[in-house]
Amino acid sequence: MEGDQTWLAARVEDALRLSQKRSCFLGFLDEGQASFCRTYLSRREGQFLFWGGHEDAERTMLGFFPPYKEPAPAAFPIQSCAFLYRKQYSLTHRDFLGAFLSLGVERDVIGDILVGEGLGVAFFREEMAGYFSQNLDTIGRVGVKVVSPWEGELPVAHTFLDMSGVIASQRLDCITAFLCRTSREKAAGLIRSGTVSINHRETLSSSAQVGEGDIISVRRHGRFVVDQLGPLTSKGRLVVKCRKYQ
User: Fold this and answer.
1) Which residue numbers delimit the RNA-binding S4 domain (predicted)?
2) Which residues neighbour 73 within 8 Å (Cβ) at sequence distance 6 or greater?
3) Helix (H, G, I), strand (E, B) or coil at 244
4) C-alpha–C-alpha distance, residues 13 and 25, integer Å
5) Cα–Cα distance for residue pair 132/115, rounded to 1 Å
6) Is the CB of residue 214 less than 8 Å from the CB of residue 203?
7) Which residue in 36, 68, 84, 136 is a FRET match for 96, CA 20 to 30 A apart?
């Protein structure tokens, strides 16, 4: 991970330098990479913006802009492509991603992939959108019709499973034990092994404090949003409400 961050920091520095004369863009970045870049850029000067083609994007480009140009989503080289298919067929995010990668492209030219009933919408680097449109007529053995750019409604990005209960405190091991339906001791083991992240950053401390709005990821168990912490019960325990990504 450290090597990846060194490489990413070098790319950010190059982009900052180039953006003194022209706009330039990195990505698509995953949420962990974007989180690292936000932290890194908090110590640097320059105009930048994260954008992934829609308001709730998880995979985003990082745009750098010269002093004379206002950062704006419309400036990003992103194009949407819709893949229409018969509603009786069921396709998944994995089906779409597998089809895209089978064309020999790098993952960072592909942004979010939103899959609904009879419709999948993907966001690509603008210069690659035509390549995907021209070379894909099936996804997972299902025939598709490609419309690009797509200006219609987007499929819902996520559905959630609501979870609620009580925990001893806001410590990460308490929250992890609740989310994974396991003991606090086993939750601490998951944390020590590096499988737990808060807001897309690996956290090795069981005593780390979790706050409302935090996103907790536990490898092989899923990803969760912490919506509410509190109030305290009559026994001094903490009411918690979360949602699990489906």
Assistant:
1) 170-230
2) 49, 51
3) strand
4) 12
5) 17
6) no
7) 36
